[in-house]
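QA checklist item 7 of 12: single-chain prediction sanity check.
[x] sequence parsed
[x] length recorded as 123
[x] structure emitted
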Amino acid sequence: MTAHSPKEVHELFLDAFNRADLDALAALYEANGLLVTRSETAIGRDAIRAAYRRILSRGGRMELQTRTVVDSGDGLALLHAAWTFHRNGTAISGISTEVVRRQADGSWLFVLDEPRTRENPGV
């Protein structure tokens, strides 16, 4: 599974998340990628895999819609998505913010991922 555009990273992420494929999720991040969850900051694929193991251990399914792709034209892009996570008859929603980078082989991977973008984070 390789993303050939910034938006495809979201598509591959959603597929891997809903299949609970930890290896596929971790592979969507650069080797030193960063995932910021409510409870931790995971740096690197092993830590990211472990974070998703905890997140997915209780089950659930996600819906995700890419809202914004801002492509810098020089190999970096900023993504925003609206998501809803369903588990045990309840749903939570949020907006994510990610930075993805084009790799040497032309594929795109997450560099920074904040699934629960904070409103007015003290700017």
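[x] summary fact logged: The chain has one domain: 6-114.
[ ] second reviewer sign-off
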